[in-house]
Amino acid sequence: MNNFSYTQAGSAKEATGIRKDKPQAAYIAGGTTLLDLMKANLEEHPQLVDINLLPFKGLEQTKDGLRIGALERMSDVGENALVKQQFPAVSESLLLAASPQLRNMASIGGNILQRTRCGYFRDAAFPCNKRVPGSGCPAQQGDNHNLAILGVSEACIATSYPGDLSVALAAFDAVLTLENQKGKQRRVPITEFYRLPGNTPHIETVLEPGELIVSVLVPAAAYTQRSTYLKVRERSSYAYALTSAAVGLDVQGGSIRAARVALGGVGAQPWRSREAEQILTGAPATEATFRAAAAAALRGAQPREHNRFKVELAQNTLVQALQKVAG
Amino acid sequence: MDTEPAFFETNPKAGSVGQPLDRVDGRAKVTGQARYSAEFNSLPGLVHAVLKTSEVAKGRIQSIDTSLALKEPGVVAILTHQNLPQLAKTPNSPEGKKAIGAPMGFLPLTTDQVHYAGQPVAIVLANTLERAQHAAALVRVNIAAEKPLASYADPRAELFDPQKVQDGKTQGHTVRGNPKAAFAAAPVQLTHTYEHAINHHNPMEPGSTTAHWEAPDRVTVYESTQGVTRTQKALSAMLGLPTEQVRVVTKYLGGGFGCKGSTWPHTVLTVQAAKAVGRPVKLALTRPQMFTSMGHREDQTQTLKVGATKEGKLLALIHEKTSTTSPWDNYAEPNSRIINLLYNCPTFESTYQLARADVMTSTFMRAPGEAPGSFAIECSLDDLAYQLGIDPLEIRLRNYAEKDPSNGKPWSSKSLKQCYARGAELFGWSKRNPQAGATRDGRLLVGWGMATASYPVHNNQGTARVRLYADGHAVVQTGATDLGTGTYTVMTQVAADALWLTPDKIRFELGDTRLPTAPNSGGSVAAGTVSSSIYMAAQDVWQKLIKLATQDKKSPLYRAKAADVVVENGRMVLKANKAKGEDFATLMKRNETTDIEGTGNGKYGAGYESGLAAGPADSGHQDDMAGHSMHSFGVHFCEVKVDPDLGTVRVSRWVSVHAAGRILNAKTARSQIIGGSIFGIGNALMEGTFRDPNFARYTNSNLADYHVPVCADIPDMTVEFIEEHDPYINAMGVKGIGEISMVGVSAAVANAVFHATGKRIRSLPITPDKVLETKKVQA
After folding, report:
1. pLDDT 10s digits, B457-493
2. Number of compact structural domains in chain A
3. Chain A: nearest CA to B690, how far in angstroms?
4. Per the CB 3.0–4.6 Å rule, which of B227, B437, B464, B650 could disulfide with B533?
């Protein structure tokens, strides 16, 4: 790890101002992902700007939905009674992630920006197009057991976002509020926030240099209340998802009026499946419908040697999640 | 440097052997008083070492540029193969390796060759850890890389017959009877192949060394080792110093599981670094370095052919193992050992095949050989049971070995039938549905499985010293190691009983080469050997006291024959008239004797019951006392719940019953069986290190991606022991339980998965992808 300086910013303006002067500086909130990356020499920053004093806090129900400050901690949001009642998938995605210690530290904004667990990215001794553009992707012929099968490219097959929360956010059309160095705010749907790898897997989001995540808005709907997040992993806790599904259904008289579906662990980004939603919408809430939706969600999957199982597992995960909320 | 509290705090009322005495070192550990090998920070001028390791697996170092790193503040030195002080001996030749007792026939920083990814290529020394880490990142190592070979599975790998494996301890080829003919003629024939992922030990405490040269020819090494004596021998051979000039200290160890059983390169490199800079040096391996510094359980495939009668009686067992080894050593864990002796089978054959790859040498890991070997035999036996429609427990009873089939010798003791019966009762095995894939709990499939466990009693020589003081306390010393499993506690109990004192009067010291020598704490030998040594040393004290009494005119025992005197309730009394005698304090005070010292040698033979060890001397063969075969036995019963759509397997119930001679402490023993079973569940369901086939480098060398069980993976576990009195194994009749706890565990889980799903998974770990992809077997 390189030496770095540490500054506590009192305002967004101060924080972005430092980044303007020092583009290589990084913001730090909970630090649970950044410090790991720095210790492993995967990221180097001359300066860390602590943004914990910024007013990006709070958790409230607005007329547009649930507004979560980017500096709220995972555990606080996950355990919040309102979130548990009105947005169970969001709560579950938070509480099934990481460990209690990490959840107590990690911020919502930091969670959204966590980086891949691909073993080739996490070890600087390997080539990795995401880390060193143009160096190659050994995962294609190597250890791809945990990696993506949808939205991948020849340059990168990482599950660029390996976590859980953004999968739930992607399902429910969450919108991020960002603030740039000029103090200007803009709103970006989470489904447009992450970028597919293509030939530039090192560019992971549409976040501009120095831009901050201020808050997340999750619109409320019948299907957010009737939602779940199902996570499949190799041990019962403290493991990244092999596959996961965030789903919400609005079912009336056995028929699906509206559906939201996103998959985790399988996509180069949190994988919203409008194909599955199309099949679900207007159809009877039966296993046959769910199976058809799952097949549609995985159509076009490009598995490699060690992650072939994800094609079936992701479908089964989605079906099970849908069955759970359909009741 | 005194590191122990003067006396351990204990509950004096629960002292006797077998009682669940709380850990005597528990308070020291939870309050931070217990110092581990990387915690001797007050040594004057202590320097922190960081290893710079090779990114590539094969190549030759062209140049090492240390100029940038050396400019950093606080950097003391950077040592490479070009400037590290020369050793008197290295393991780089077979003779050197043998003299040192090294686990690997190669020492990094002795040449410019790179043989494995993660091989140390430089040692960076600085006055703080952070500065050393940073400087290490600035060292530029230019290696001319070559394409490495990652494993025996690579088509380029060349398989060879090693003649012997495990450093010559195991024959590469063993035949008993005519197994090929017996198999060919067998009415029932099974041939199955089993695969095992690489496993890494990953104790909580990483490998760590603090080296302090107190004089140019005298060094003290605080080392995380399972055996100070073995480390001392290895270091003195490499350094060219007499053993008394090398002191090795291990007061506390945070687990080992075998990876701390040998002296790996980082230890001597740290000692050499300290010599080079003339200051104490401390090195603690990082977690990623733990995957490439202290060995691993090798990647391997086993094929087992089973020939049997239609009644399920074994006729032939033919075992082949293929595994990866390093460029220098013929290491393979001895899987065949347990297959040869677990069941009554008239013929047997085993063959080992190895392939060299650009990896470090693998090493023993908890139950080496027995763990994977039991997976093959116990899954195959389960197959046989289903194929013939026999209950899996019943088929094991039909093949019960009343003597050791591998050599025809009687067992020193064997209580496996009692273990089966008690385990089956606790688990409710009689209610088992004989049909596989037929029991459900909601949408989950429920399966029951069981497997036999066995582990040899590798007896060893050990020594102990007991000094009894007239004021009623005693100091007990031996150079053993406590891996964290309870050695401090159980040995305190043994000494207390042998001296008729309460445990709070015992000060027990271990982990220092200045103390009487003890064997490595490995192969489950420590409990039996060390307890017997202490017991014998206490007897030596009593004999000296009796001699003193019989020569003391004022003693009631004056002129009695020593053989007529016994010790009861702490008093020396006449056998014929127990009212006549006195206690040691009275005798010693009258004679103005402040203390009496006794020494003891733990080895084979009975003693605990009769009051004196009476067995013959070491017969020469480690595992053969008076013509007996010495083993622990036990059984695991397991229930799993499998999600057929998600492929997830969760262990929902667990029963282990073992017979392992005398159990020294009911609580620490239970904990050890639980720990070993969890270790085995990890091996069964989640542990596996992935070595990239093109780079021969691990892709998951951290504890987020190398999965070990978490609490949520483990149900309440039921553990019981069958009382067993073995008059042959050692003075205390203790067999040791460190390893048997994990033998058979992976098979019990796999057998339960089969019972749940009808799917036979022969590849470890049993992860969801394998459950989904494996087709159902027609049972």
Report:
1. 986 788 999 999 999 999 999 999 999 999 999 999 9
2. 2
3. 7
4. B464
Record: contact B134-A2, CB cut-off 8 A: yes
The predicted pLDDT at position B603 comes to: 67
Question: pLDDT tens digits, residue range A139-154?
Answer: 999 999 999 999 999 9
The answer, yes or no, to whether residue B541 has pLDDT greater than 90, is yes
φ, ψ for residue A66 (rounded to 5)? -85, 125
The CA–CA distances, whole Å, from B654 to B416, B716, B718 equal: 18, 7, 6
Asked if B650 and A142 come within 8 Å (Cβ–Cβ), the reply is no
- Residue pair B697/A126 in contact (Cβ under 8 Å)? The answer is yes
CATH of the domain at B514: 3.30.365.10
CB contact under 8 A, B772 and A123: no
For A311, which residue in chain B has the nearest alpha carbon?
B769
10 Å CB burial of residue B330 (0-12, 13-18, 19+) is: buried
Which parts of chain A are beta strand (E)? 5-8, 26-28, 47-50, 59-62, 65-69, 175-179, 185-189, 212-218, 227-232, 243-252, 255-264, 271-272
Dihedral of the alpha carbons of A123, A124, A126, A132, in degrees to the nearest 10: 130
CA distance A325 to chain B (A): 16
Residue A124 lies in a domain: no
pTM of the model: 0.96
B579 in the same domain as B498:
yes
Contacts of B713 in chain A (CB under 8 A): 235-237
A244, A312, A313: best to mutate for the B interface, most B CBs within 10 A: A313
Residue with tokens 């910024």: A54
Q: What is the pLDDT of residue B744?
A: 98
- The answer to whether B469 contacts chain A (CB < 8 Å) is no
Nearest CA in chain B to A41: B137
Catalytic residue among B370, B378, B509, B739: B739
CATH number at residue A24: 3.30.43.10
Write out the two tokens for B555: 């003693």
Expressed as residue numbers, the domain containing A282 is 222-326
For B667-684, write each residue's pLDDT tens digit.
999 999 999 999 999 999
pLDDT of residue B168: 80
- The span from the CA of A265 to the CA of A248, in Å, is 18
Residues in chain A predicted with pLDDT less than 70, given as ranges, are none
Q: Are residues B479 and B570 in the same domain?
A: yes
CB pairs under 8 A between A and B: 102
**Whose structure tokens read 């980086």?**
A115
Task: Flag whether pLDDT at B246 surpasses 80.
Answer: yes
Segment among A10-19, B53-62, B495-504, B623-632 with least mean pLDDT: B623-632
In a domain, B549, yes or no: yes
pLDDT bin (cut points 50, 70, 90) of residue B626 is low
Q: Closest-CA residue in chain B for A314?
A: B646
- Determine the pLDDT at residue B568: 86
Assign residue A253 a region (left: φ > 0; alpha: ψ between -120 and 50; beta: otherwise): left
CB contact under 8 A, A239 and B707: yes
Within the 164-183 window of chain B, which residues sit less than 8 Å (CB to CB) from chain A? none
Q: What is the span of the domain harbouring residue B390? A: 366-458+626-773
Cα of A119 to nearest chain B Cα, Å: 5
Q: Which residues of A touch B692 (CB under 8 A)?
A: 126, 138, 142-143
**Do B580 and B661 lie in a common domain?**
no
Residue B625 tokens, joined: 């006392």
Residue B372 lies in a domain: yes
For residue A123, the chain B residue with the least C-alpha distance is B699
On the question of pLDDT at B345 being above 70, the answer is yes
d(CA A195, CA B725): 69
B704 interfaces chain A, CB cutoff of 8 Å: yes
Judge whether B724 counts as a catalytic residue.
Answer: no
Domain membership flag for residue A131: no
ipTM of the complex: 0.97
Q: Is B128 on the interface with A (CB under 8 A)?
A: no
pLDDT of residue B3 exceeding 60, the answer is no
Whether B439 and B572 share a structural domain: no
